[in-house]
Predict the 3D structure of the following.
Amino acid sequence: MKKMLIAGNWKMNTNVFEAEKLAQYILGFLKSSDEVSSKVLICPPFTNLYPISKLVDGTSLLLGSQNCHFEQKGAFTGEISIEMLDYCGVSHIIIGHSERRAYFDESDELINKKLLAILDFGKTPILCIGETLDERNSGNTFNVLSKQLNADLEGVSAEAIENIVIAYEPVWAIGTGVSATTEQVVEAHNWIRQFLVEKFGEAAKGVALLYGGSLNEKNANELLAIENVNGGLIGGASLKGESFAEIIKIAQKYV
Ligand code: PGA
């Protein structure tokens, strides 16, 4: 049986009313489904976390955030701490998303600080890694992935590795409607698994590896079937209740 996590990254979309509606739709779907063995997670904008936490309380739907600060409190205007997220019922925190790396200049050093703080707090980081098109075309995909993994996972112990989720998200596939091909995903996920096992030992076989980048209800069948794919980090398609529900249904074939 393989581990499966279907995660929706809503990015900077949904006001509080839209967010509640979408969460209700997903809750309704989960309730009416015979069996959902995958973990299902939604990551709405910060301002929608607390109201949604009231809706998901006591259900199987998990709540995540799209970012955090590594300090617990203090003079960091505009930032949100892990403790604040804890009070909003958050279990998972996305870090290192390529949009944060590109538009907010987040370095591997900063991402590593966040990752260690999240683990310390007992939450699950979803660490995003991935190459740009230029990096892929110049044959540097695995140099980039190894640089990101080495730096972002600095100081992580072999015991802690299983508490981390890793999302492989080729930057060129995010929001473009063009996902990576099955062959590219097989190659990248096998490579990441092998890298982790070499670095952390057998425990790394239990790390959930998500694929992200234009994953939708049309390509989910092929991508979620891949051995080393343990689910998806889904942007655009997670904003449409029907599409997200369909992906959860498809995932059920492979758990
Ligand atoms: P996408 O986004 O599914 O819209 O490509 C994925 C992501 O950025 O996590």
Q: What stands out?
A: DSSP finds ten helices and eight strands in the chain. The chain has one domain: 5-242. The first helix runs from residue 16 to 32.
